[in-house]
Amino acid sequence: MKETMKLLTQVASVLFVAWIGTGKAAAQAKPFPGPDVPQIYQRLLPQIEKIPMFDHHAHPGYADDADVDAMAAPPGSAALRERDTNPELVAAAKALWGYPYNDLSAEHAKWLIQKKQEVKKQRGNAYFTDILDKLNIEKGVANRAMMADYLDPKRFPWVFFADAFMWPFDNQREAARNGDEQVYIPLQEKMLHRWMQQEGLTKLPANFPDYLAFVTRTLEDNKKKGGIAMKFEVAYFRSTKFSDPPRERAEDIYQRFVAGGIPTEAEYRAFQDYIFRFLVREGGRLHLAVHVHSAVGIGDYFNLSESNILNLENILRDPRYSDTTFVMIHGGYPYDRQAIWLAAVKNVYLDTSETEILLYPSEFKHLLKQWLETFPDKVTFGTDCFPYNEALGAEESYWLGVQSSRTALAAALAEMISEGEVSEAQALQLAHMYLHDNAAKLYGEMK
Ligand SMILES: [Zn+2]
Fold first, then answer.
1. Percent of the chain, pLDDT > 90?
2. Residue 18: is its pLDDT beyond 50?
């Protein structure tokens, strides 16, 4: 005890010298920001704008490109800021294209559509690279059904979809559950057939080992085609709580239903639980990150409690998957306060895409601040840009995502500086980590 006290005294004196050395008292953090927040914000924002970004999750592409996602949006209720009445979209069109009007009425939107067509003609395959350059995005992940030849793979790393492997049987009952599933499930069937086509299969393999070999081959080939991760949007189709059935059970279900017949819900889920875990394990073995949609979703029937990010905790904390890099896409919102604690696991990362659009910067700033105060080395930036329609394209949603994230980040860091949590230099370091370095490092390390 005495020794410990002596040691503490020594440490304290060293620390005291360090404080004096910096010429700035590193006192205890304050519970309120000071009046200097707006000035600090003004100083930080232009420096943040200069940081080249790694957009960890987005759906770049033209509005008429069916491959931009593996699923479609059913008619559902969009949050206020996501509606096409959002006046910020006019600001996006002005910033990107010099749009001369102050609204997006059908008449005025024609100008925008025509302008984009002209630029597309002029710039060809450089069109979307130009958008990245304009916004200072160094790399923009393209989470797409298939890659497009008009996206430069050096700038747009591909993230493909892996859910379809979990729906190989007769899906009548699955699709009949509600109007959303009627839209989603046939698209999953289509995706599975595209993977089969890619691998030269005209029908499903007759036995289970061959089915797993087909899954693995698809992952390997997608990696060769430039894939850096597999994405699950399984939360749209079923609960994200995965049990741990033995291989024999999955094999038995496969053998009984591969040629026809409808498995019971319990049987289908058990089969899917096995396949999900198989994919997660293969992700570790093949160095493909596993991206999981972990937040609230669109549509009328998205089940928030069944898709709660904490449902995945048994998977994320399973030592058998410690070689797999997980990225919790959309950071579990609105369970973001819980989500950040999952990033305590060394191979688990969070992404803020979609959240920066759902929330206004004044609210998104609180989420970012809490995350940066907890595991700043595990949080990454994303836009979730998407071509909603011809006028409101991926281009405009890129812009909104970038502006929202930069302003919220500058505001969160300004408060942290003012409250004495970090120095200005440390804050800029955190900005680099969030906007670029954490994601870049994650893929650099995985190779
Ligand atoms: Zn997305």
1. 87
2. no
